Amino acid sequence: MNPSWLESAVFYQIYPQSFCDSNGDGIGDLPGIISKLDYLQALGVNAIWINPCFESPFQDAGYDISDYYRIAPRYGTNADARQLFTEARNRGFHVLLDLVPGHTSNAHPWFQASCKHQPNEYSDWYLWTDSGWTWEIPGLRLISGYAERDACYAANFFYFQPALNYGFADPDPRYPWQQSVDAPGPQTVRRKLREIMEFWLVMGCSGFRVDMAASLVKNDPGWRETTNLWREIRAWLDRDYPESALVSEWSHPAAAIQAGFHGDFLLPFGSAGYASLFRKSRPGGAGSDPYGFSFFDPAGHGNIRQFLDEYESLYQEIKGRGLICLTTGNHDIAPRLGTDRTADDLEMCFLFLLSMPGAPFIYYGDEIGMRTLEGLPSKEGGLSRTGSRTPMQWTGGPAAGFSSAPVEKLYLPIDPAPGFPNVALQESDPHSLLHRVRRMIALRRAHPALWASADFQTVYGESGKYPLVFRRSASGETLLVGLNPAHDPVSICFSQPFTGERSMEIQTLYGIQQGLTVESDGLRLSLPGISGGVYSLGREK
Ligand code: NOJ
Fold first, then answer.
1. Residue 111 Cβ contacting ligand 1 at under 6 Å
2. Does the CB atom of residue 344 touch ligand 1 within 6 A?
3. Which atom of ligand 1 is closest in space to residue 332's alpha carbon?
4. Of 228, 262, 438, 535, which sits 20 to 30 A from 514 (CA to CA)?
5. What span, in angstroms and rounded, lies between the C-alpha atoms of 343 and 450?
6. 3-class SS at 233?
7. Distance of CA 323 to the CA centre of its chain
8. Whose CA is nearest to atom 11 of ligand 1?
9. 522-527: strand order across its sheet
10. Which domains does the chain have, with CATH numbers?
């Protein structure tokens, strides 16, 4: 059972170092987030995911944790986190923290102890081979020459992120150091994971986005043991914290939901369908490949089937059991949605994302069309992701209202373009993207037919053609969403996408007025270039 609040959830992802700096050190912090809750409330979102904010050397922007129980001093204190949860709850928000279960920083005291020659309590908390010369084992990234102990450790991501030991699904008898999931080390780590989750749940968070959720048990084809592990956690949550949610970074919703996650992201790295929606082919990229074009591009060369073929079957598979989470972007994705797109183009992307099933996620700044800054030196392990992690642009001016620090002390630079997108500018313009996004979020929240598990059906989605039309319905209400992200106007006819008696009063809820009309044998949708609409087809009699 999903916690009921997920049904109408619209999430906002906050990258804490780049959101709002309250103390003038050039880095965002938790009091800064608290000071912007009113902004988020006015935007209309009702759930927040905060990237890791725990103590860390920040070699991977906080995905390298050195103390799971302590807020990083640069972000504030545990008392600030408690206050954030309270203030968020008072405004009706649910807050997800980022859980990084697969690895710690190599600076974590657990790992430092685990590196020791002398066997100790922590020796089996990480994945170690039995010799410093076992450099290459298929399926593992082994790091040699680091520890006092004569062994190599497995890294989960960067070299400084040693993998915690959840064991191997099928330990290879040739390598006796591969422990089973039931061995004492893996079982202790599993208990620790639960303890960490409980610590923050008790403090007041509403669950977790789970980093690399599929990566815990090694040598686990089909994720048999990884699934068992998460199902055990989910059973515990259902019992003790039934209002909390788990959303995975897995990009394989069928597997993730089977494993007990309430929702899973589709991400460009794991889903070719999602990648085909927004990510434009770049010069020298897959320009001549019909699948290399974004559907949400005025040139109109996209192919929505690439998304729908994947999505429709996934949707059928997980329907009623969990959510597919579609996102505008995140801290790992470059370029941002707003790169090379106008407010009109972006409105189409948002209208799509905010009308689809599952839980939509808005990456901070996408609601004002922030762009990726190209060519920045890597910051905290960001590499090519760095330019999508720049400070939120609240106002004009050199520091964009993000911080009172001198510009050279900012976590990352502000968009140098004159008139760069910012909240203050867009607040004063009723046609701005920010205002449009607000209206779309309000529409979603007001209509259960647009909520997470309301029914979804493609009405028109043809290979290489525009528009996209889909139906959403719940409790007798039926809505049609029509989207034409391409320059050329479109006009199509289709039979009535519902059965049963109904009073046919078409009402425009958003977008092009009279875009949808009744014809003798069905309905006609006519949309100018780069436009869309949401239409109510009345209620069942
Ligand atoms: C996925 C996170 O989103 C990414 O930012 C991080 O670098 C890796 N996992 C490693 O934790």
1. no
2. no
3. 5
4. 438
5. 23
6. helix
7. 12
8. 63
9. 490-494, 522-527, 516-519
10. 4-101+187-445 (3.20.20.80), 103-163 (3.90.400.10), 455-539 (2.60.40.1180)
Contact 357, 368 (CB under 8 A): no
Q: Please give the pLDDT value at position 285.
A: 46
Answer whether 211 contacts ligand 1 (Cβ < 6 A): yes
DSSP sequence for 510-531? EESTT-EEEETTEEEEEE-SSE
pLDDT score for 499: 59
Report pTM: 0.97
Q: How many CB atoms lie within 10 A of CB 476?
A: 13
State the Cα–Cα distance between residues 531 and 344, nearest whole angstrom: 8
- Amino acid 284: pLDDT: 45
* Positions of the chain with pLDDT lower than 50, given as ranges: 283-291
Please name the residues in contact with 232: beta carbons below 8 A apart, sequence gap of 6 or more. Answer: 190
How far, in Å, is the centroid of ligand 1 from the Cα of 211?
A: 6
The pLDDT of residue 281: 57
Encoding tokens for residue 129?
A: 């081979």
Query: How far is ligand 1, taken at its centre, from the CA of residue 63, in Å?
Result: 6
Radius of gyration of the chain (CA): 24
Residue minimizing CA distance to atom 1 of ligand 1: 211
DSSP 288: T
Residue type, 505: E
pLDDT attached to residue 291: 45
Ramachandran region, residue 167 (left: φ > 0; alpha: ψ -120 to 50; beta: rest): left
- Asked if 105 and 65 count as a contact pair (C-beta separation under 8 A), the reply is yes
- In angstroms, what is the span from residue 156 Cα to ligand 1's centroid? 10
Say if residue 335 is preceded by a cis peptide, omega within 30 of 0.
yes
Length, in residues, of the chain: 541
Per-residue pLDDT, 538: 80
CA angle 408, 52, 337 (to 5 degrees): 70
β-pairing, 468-474 vs 455-460, is: antiparallel
CA-nearest residue for atom 4, ligand 1, is 332
Task: State how far the Cα of 30 lies from the Cα of 72, in Å rounded to an integer.
Answer: 10
In ligand 1, the atom with minimum distance to the C-alpha of 60 is 7
* Amino acid at residue number 459: V
Please tell me the residue having the least CA distance from ligand 1 atom 2: 211
